[in-house]
Every structure is written in C-alpha cells, then in structure tokens.
Backbone:
C-alpha cells in the first residue's frame, strides 16, 4: 500500500491512498462469500451459487460496495499509521478507482490535531492560597454537620419558611387546561432547594397548613417540553404539612454522636486539622489549574470544532453516568432543570473547549521538553491502581491492553508529569488577604 498526504487548510489534510490489486481480489472474495448467503437463484440453495454464475447473473460490480466496505477501514487505518497523521474526526472519503484486477485508489479528507505555538510556560507566577482554617470556616462546617444530623419535626402551626419541607398537592394549568405531568398529591418539596420551576417555591413561603393558593409562574424558554416552554402557568396548591429541621445542640453529646471524641473541644480540634488537610489538597489542585490555564492562554491555537464536540460528548456521558449512579436519568434531569440537551451541551461546551486547549498545550510542552513515561513509571501506576481495585497489577495491565486503554493511561501520566514540570518551574506569589 502507498499513502501520502498534503495540507489543504490549517487543520485539514488530504490523504491519497493506493491499495494493491491483490488485496482488492481478496476483498472481492470476502464480499462474495458474504453476499452469496443472501442470494436466491433458482436451482441452488442459499450460499451454494457458483461464483461464475453469480457474476454472470448479477455482474461482478454488484460486489464492489461490499468489497470497499471490507477493505476501506483497514486501508485507512494503515494510511494513518504510514503517514503519521493524527485524525480527530471521521474522514470524508472519495473513491477514485475500484475494479477487479486494478489497484484501489481513494482520497480521505480529515481534520487533524492543530498546531500549537507556545507562549511563555516557565517562570509563570501563581498565587499560593492561604491554608489556615478560620473560625468562620469551622463554624460553617459545624453547621453543615448539624444540618446533616437534624431531625424533621412536624409543626402544628405557623407559616412555611425557606428550608422547610412542605407536603403539598398541586395541579398545573396552561391556558386554563391541565397538562401532562403537572399534577401530584402529597408531594414533599423543600423550599429553597430549587427543585421546581423558578418562582414556584418562593410563593409557598408564608403559607399556613390547610391554605390554598394559585401559584403563577412562567416556564423557562429552554424547558424540555416544547409545548410548555416559555408559557405562563398557574398551579393550584394545597399545603398539608410543614416539616422543619430541628438542629442538635453543639455540645459534648453532639461530638459523641458524630465522632469518636468525648468532648466538643476535642472534636473541633480534629475537625480543624481535617479541614486544613482538605484546604492544602485544594491549594495544590488550584495551583495546578492556575498554572495550566495561564500557560494555555499564552499559547496560540485554532481548535477544530470536531475536537470540542467530541469532548462535549465525553462530558455529557460522564454527567449522565453520575446521574444514573444517583438514581436519576437525563430525561428526569431535563424535567427538573427545565433544560433540554442543546442547552446543557451549550453549557458544557465552554468547559470542553478549555479542556481540549489545555491538553493540546500540555502535549506540546511534553514534546518540546521531551517529557515521557517510562515502563517503570507505568508499572508503578498500575501497582497503585491494583491497590485501589484490589486486583493484581499484571491483570490490570492485561485488561487495559485488551480494552485499548493502556496508551490512554500512559498519556494521562504524561499530562500529570508535564503539569508537575510546570509547577516546579513556576514562581510562587503569596496570596493577598
């Protein structure tokens, strides 16, 4: 096989490929074996029609498309390996020649990784955040623990407040007509949670047990149901119950309930230490993010839309998996948030573009600085993963290799090593309080 390439535009190349006639013949043989299983010819069982009779009746040209489908994927992959072109999108194929006894010629236009022109990436100034735990931060964490261990108490009288859990009946109407999914009985809604359409929960504040109220809202323009998007609605609401959080007292008994310590003072000291550890880890991560973003912003790069779209797909799949682990689906999320897929992808696109830019810049720095991952470093990472997954390192290596993810692991290690290189070559500036 012969393959060559030329640049058409900044991030677009055209690969010219010529495959030997012998491989064309082999592909036609495979195509015949596949097609003959589906052909009905009087006097022959399926799959038993002689090749000569098949070609006489249907013509050898009837095998061409199947043969191309068989031959093209491997030929294209081989052409990428031979030319060293790194494709980031599906190719646009133009078949120039395909016939029995002749070579197979085709051209493939494909988007490739963009060129990266680095700016300054050594000596970047990065602020060092303060990691001391303030009294306010300790108090906020204690309050969070109180909220987590609070009891919901049914109150007999009084108005509903933000933070209360209300038990309500509701029925929604648009243009005076009820709509699907707009009705529920004895629904538990925490006021201030943002679970319902904007403006709904706020209007329940101040209601008393047994009250009826018409709640007027407008569905968001990007609401998932097109027949409701942007339309005003009225919900007829009845308030049955109000449940309010009763926070436990901050005393020694609370410390015993939530920790292994006997006194509140001991617990606060331990909690302060743990909060400081968290802040130190967060400070390291923040410094890494800051140095990468500064270096990425200093680089010149034109990112192909295909790379941003692919990364957005990845972020969306990851988000969907996290929702699923919480017992929620994307469709249910769209209902609660009032968004649709296009709106959600639009939000994720910004993060996707940033990720792609950062990774491309880090790859270029690794190339310039000759940062690589040795087999020893790869083995060390597999040993760490073996502890996390409780499986032998060699078994993990086999799984990663079989799934085609071993090189992905190597690339991830290379990016992390490059980030550490940037940190080691950065300048620390003390954060001003």
Residues:
């Amino acid at each position: 096989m012969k393959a060559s390439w030329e640049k058409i535009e900044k991030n677009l190349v055209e690969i010219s490929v010529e495959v030997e006639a012998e491989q064309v013949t082999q592909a036609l043989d495979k195509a015949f074996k596949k097609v003959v299983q589906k052909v009905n010819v009087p006097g022959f069982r399926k799959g038993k029609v002689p090749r000569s009779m098949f070609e006489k009746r249907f013509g050898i040209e009837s095998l061409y498309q199947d043969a191309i489908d068989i031959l093209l994927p491997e030929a294209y992959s081989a052409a990428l390996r031979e030319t060293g072109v790194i494709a980031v999108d599906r190719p646009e194929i133009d078949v120039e020649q395909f016939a029995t006894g002749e070579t197979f010629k085709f051209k493939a236009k494909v988007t490739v990784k963009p060129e990266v022109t680095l700016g300054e990436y050594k000596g970047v100034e990065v602020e060092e955040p303060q990691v001391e735990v303030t009294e306010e931060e300790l108090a906020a964490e204690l309050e969070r623990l109180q909220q987590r261990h609070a009891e919901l108490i049914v109150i007999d009288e009084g108005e509903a407040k933000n933070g209360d859990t209300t038990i309500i009946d509701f029925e929604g109407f648009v243009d005076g007509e009820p709509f699907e999914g707009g009705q529920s009985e004895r629904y538990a809604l925490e006021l201030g949670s943002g679970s319902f359409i904007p403006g709904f929960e706020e209007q329940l504040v101040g209601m008393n047990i047994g009250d009826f109220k018409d709640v007027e809202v407008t569905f968001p323009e990007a609401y998932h149901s097109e027949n409701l998007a942007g339309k005003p609605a009225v919900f007829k609401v009845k308030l049955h119950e109000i449940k309010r959080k009763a926070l436990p007292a901050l005393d020694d008994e609370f410390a015993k309930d939530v920790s292994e310590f006997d006194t509140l003072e001991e617990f606060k000291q331990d909690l302060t230490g743990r909060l400081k550890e968290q802040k130190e880890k967060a400070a390291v991560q923040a410094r890494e993010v800051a140095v990468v973003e500064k270096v990425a912003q200093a680089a010149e790069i034109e990112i192909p839309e295909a790379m941003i779209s692919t990364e957005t797909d990845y972020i969306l799949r990851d988000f969907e998996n996290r929702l699923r682990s919480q017992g929620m689906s994307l469709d249910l999320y769209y209902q609660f948030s009032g968004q649709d897929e296009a709106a959600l992808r639009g939000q994720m696109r910004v993060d996707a573009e940033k990720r792609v830019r950062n990774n491309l810049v880090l790859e270029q720095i690794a190339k310039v600085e000759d940062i690589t991952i040795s087999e020893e470093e790869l083995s060390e990472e597999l040993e760490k993963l073996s502890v996390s997954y409780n499986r032998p390192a060699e078994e993990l290596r086999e799984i990663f290799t079989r799934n085609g993810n071993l090189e992905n692991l190597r690339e991830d290690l290379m990016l992390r090593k490059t980030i550490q290189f940037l940190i080691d070559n950065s300048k620390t500036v003390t954060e001003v309080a």
